[in-house]
Amino acid sequence: MAGDLLDNRGRGDVRWSFPSIHPEGRKFGVIAVVISLAFLLGLDWEIIGWPLLLLSGGVFAFFRDPERVVPQDDRVIIAPADGLVSLITEVEPPAEMMVDDGTGHDGLSPGKVTRISIFMSVFDVHINRAPIAGTIRRVIYIPGSFLDAGLDKASEENERQHILIERMDGLKIGFTQIAGLVARRIVPFVKPGDTVGAGQRIGLIRFGSRVDVYLPAGTDSKVLLGQRIVAGETILAEIGSQQLLEGVSQ
Predict the structure, then answer these.
(1) Strand ordering across the sheet containing 195-196
(2) What is the CATH number of domain 76-238?
């Protein structure tokens, strides 16, 4: 059937189509369309109605939810967000991911690790995905400010949500969804105890934001500052791999 891609051997037929719209965003798109039609048809204010109708299309586009081809390799950590690699630095993991939370499951170990920050503009896909397969151990929401998500201090001052995933072999990956200047709502799709696959949808942040990923000790980034990455597809790191990477400007 046209539109179906059957396998990776070239069999099947595929054509471009606009990605599906996540249910979380459909109501916002419909509200924007209704308001724009009210100005166009009800009040005959075209100078307002037409721009609002275009904005409605932008709202639907913001909540687009494309399919992704997830690498099937237990050694890799996958990007949880689309966007630009804005910071790569060594830091201590957030205290909320390290302290004993009383559940009997250990958090991240103290000590500096590599943190990769991914900045999402309003033009990026905002569905976030699990960087590894495992069990959700913590989902911690922390209220805060709405500073520019590109600033380093946004990791500690902005509204944010920490998520900790543990694999069957005990490896843990923590990452943080951070609200920005425009983002006003972090929406989780998972809760502690849920089992997720690598690349599975785990939440979204509305209207511009950032995601920080804390790599395990002894693991370096395989992406570079300024690189654009794709959630569920780009490999951020290979567990236990440390090497210096240099980009080539062209």
Answers:
(1) 195-196, 134-142, 160-166, 172-179, 209-214, 113-120, 83-91, 228-229
(2) 2.70.70
Residues 113 and 51: their CA atoms lie apart, in Å, by: 46
Annotated catalytic residue: which of 86, 209, 241, 249? 209
Look up residue 185 and give its two tokens.
């709502």
The pair of structure tokens assigned to 55 is 């904005």
Mind listing the pLDDT tens digit for each residue in 9-38? Answer: 666 666 666 777 777 777 777 877 888 888
pTM of the model: 0.82
The DSSP H or E segment spanning 151 is none
Is beta strand 113-120 parallel, antiparallel or unpaired with respect to 209-214? antiparallel
Distance (Å, whole) CA 149 – CA 151: 5
Give residue limits of the domains in the chain. 1-67, 76-238
Q: Residue 86 catalytic?
A: no
Maximum pairwise Cα distance, the chain: 63
Query: Would you give the DSSP letter of residue 122?
Result: T
Give residue-wise pLDDT tens across range 63-97: 788 888 899 999 999 999 999 999 999 999 999 99
CB 44 within 8 A of CB 87: no
Instruction: Supply 115's token pair.
Output: 């943190």
